[in-house]
């Protein structure tokens, strides 16, 4: 059973790409470049119910299972200490829980509204925690000598890519141009890191 759980990180990394694409097919004129991923599940969107059903809820479950696997597998080798892998597992679980929260509390239909609803505020704060959890996790790898230098360097570049495109996202949001593109690139670096780290954890 534990061996099967080791693949949940890889499955989640692929699922998120496929799930967003499928949901977008049911949203007329949806733009991946101009619109946020969360707009698929926003209040009043054509895919308000569909998007969290095929994205947030199963993805959150997969993240949590992978985090659980990391903690349990690592504790078998290090039963009396908190290791870098345990911390990473906890971050992945937090990411999964916040994925559920973002699905349950939709954002507003207008991402530029000056008066967001309570649901939108919860969604936004939960999204911020998601972002931080997958910055902390690769940062742990960077500063942990237990990991090979190649993985540590890869983690560094993934964080760098995430920060760069988050900066670009901030500018695009203010200019109301292509925030969706930069959101996908920013989060894409985090998901790429998860995919590679998942492969490493299996090996």
UniProtKB/TrEMBL annotation:
Q: Report the superkingdom from the record.
A: Bacteria
UniProt xrefs under InterPro entries = DUF998 (IPR009339)
Keyword Transmembrane helix belongs to the record: yes
User: Where does the chain cross the membrane?
Assistant: 6-27, 54-73, 85-105, 125-143, 149-169, 181-200
Question: Keywords in UniProt for this one?
Answer: Membrane, Transmembrane, Transmembrane helix
* One Pfam assignment: DUF998
Q: What is this protein called?
A: CBS domain-containing protein
């Amino acid at each position: 059973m534990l061996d099967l759980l080791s693949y949940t990180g890889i499955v989640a990394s692929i699922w998120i790409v496929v799930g967003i694409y499928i949901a977008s097919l049911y949203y007329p004129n949806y733009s991946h470049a101009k619109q946020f991923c969360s707009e698929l599940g926003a209040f009043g969107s054509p895919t308000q119910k569909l998007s969290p059903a095929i994205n947030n809820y199963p993805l959150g479950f997969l993240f949590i299972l992978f985090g659980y696997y990391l903690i349990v597998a690592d504790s078998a080798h290090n039963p009396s200490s908190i290791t870098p892998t345990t911390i990473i597992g906890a971050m992945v679980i937090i990411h999964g829980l916040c994925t559920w929260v973002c699905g349950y509390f939709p954002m507003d239909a207008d991402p530029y509204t000056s008066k967001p609803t309570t649901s939108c505020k919860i969604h936004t704060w939960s999204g911020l925690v998601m972002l931080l959890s997958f910055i902390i996790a690769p940062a742990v790898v960077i500063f942990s000598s237990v990991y090979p230098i190649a993985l540590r360097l890869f983690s560094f570049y993934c964080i760098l890519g995430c920060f760069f495109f988050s900066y670009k996202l901030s500018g695009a949001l203010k200019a109301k141009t292509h925030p969706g593109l930069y959101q996908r690139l920013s989060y894409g670096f985090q998901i790429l890191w998860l995919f590679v780290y998942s492969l490493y954890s299996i090996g």
